[in-house]
Amino acid sequence: MDKVKVFAMYLPQYHETEENNRFWGKGFSDWVSVKKAVPLFDGHDQPKKPLDGYYYDLSKKEDIVRQAELAKKYGVSGFGIYHYWFSSEKQALTRPAEIILENKDIDVPFFFAWDNASWKRTWSSVKGNDWSPLMDEKKGAAESGPEILIEYKEGTEKDWKKHFDFLLPYFKDERYIKDSGKPLFLIYNYSPDTEKMAAYWNKLAVSEGFAGVEVVYSYNPFHGIPSSAKKFRYEPLYSGWGRFIDRLGRLFRRHKVQTEVKTYSYDDVWERIIANARRCRDKNTYYGAFVSYDDTPRRGSKGKAVLGATPEKFCGYLRRLREICSRQGKNYIFLTAWNEWGEGAYLEPDSVSAYAYLEAYQKSAE
C-alpha cells in the first residue's frame, strides 16, 4: 500500500483578505464561523477547537511551516491546495500558496485543486459557492442586492494562457506533484470549455518540457464528463448521501425551509464509499475519502452532519480503501480534508482527539 498516496485537501481561507472583509466583515476568515458554532441537537460536538487554541493565520510563514512539519511527521502524502481563479482579472486566497512557492525550505508536496465557480450570496439561485451562510444572514444581505460576489468566467484561449502562466512557476517547483512528468491539477466543475482549456494547457506544458498536464475532474453525473477523462469522487458528498437524491429532494421541497440538521451515519457513508470503490471498473476514476463531516458552523440548522466518527474507524476504513486502490493499481486518494474546520473535516489536532486522527492516518498505511 506504500504506493498509494493519500492527499489531504487544504483550505487557504484562514487569513484576512480584502474580499473577506468586504463580504462578511472586517477580520473574517473561516475561524469566525468555527468559533461561533453552537450545538444544535443532543450530543452535537460544537464548537470544534484546535488543540491549545491554535487559531493560525495562513498569511504567516511560520504557521504554514508548522503545518508542513506536522503533515510530514505523520506521513501525509501532500496537500491539494484549493485554487480560486475566477478570471484573468480576479483571483482570491492566493497568499498561502505564494508563501510556499517563495520559501523552498517549506518541505511539503502540493498541487492545486481549482474550485472554478462564482462566489455568491446564500439566498441566490445562481450556481456557485455560498461561503458563509450564517454570516450572510447576520449581515442582513438584502435579497434585492447583488447575487454574485465574485463572478467566475471561463474565458477564452487568451485567458487560459494567462492562467497557465500564473501556474507555471508552481508546476516547475520540485515540490509540485507530478504524475509521469505531468503536473497534477484538479478541476471541480467540468464543462466543454474546461476540456478545451485542458487540451490547450497540455500543449503549453509540453512546450515547457513537461509530458503534459494531469487534469482530474470532480465526478458529477450532471456535468457529462467524458468516460475518457480522469475524475475523482469528492467525499463524503457523493457516496455519503448522494447529490442526485439531494437534488430531487430540493426539487420537491422547493418552498420548504429546512429547520433541522440532516444527520448521517459515519459507518453508512464509509461503507458506501468502500462498496462504490470495490465495484468500480473505470480505470480513470480515483476515489475520495473523508475524516468526518459537519458543516453546521457555516450553515446552522440547514447543515449536514455525519455522526459516529472515531479515529479507530477512520483508520480501518482508510486502510480498506488503500487496499482496494493497491489491488486496482490506483495511486491516489483525495482526502477531505487537512483543515476544513468549518465543515468538520480535518486531520489537524483538536481539543478533543488531539493527534489521534493523524496517528490513525499514519497507521492506515501499515
TrEMBL record:
Gene3D superfamilies in alphabetical order: Glycosidases
Transmembrane segments: none
Highest taxon of source: Bacteria
InterPro entries in the cross-refs: WbsX
Name used for this protein in its record: Glycosyltransferase WbsX
Origin species: Ruminococcus flavefaciens
Upper taxonomic lineage: Bacteria, Bacillati, Bacillota, Clostridia, Eubacteriales
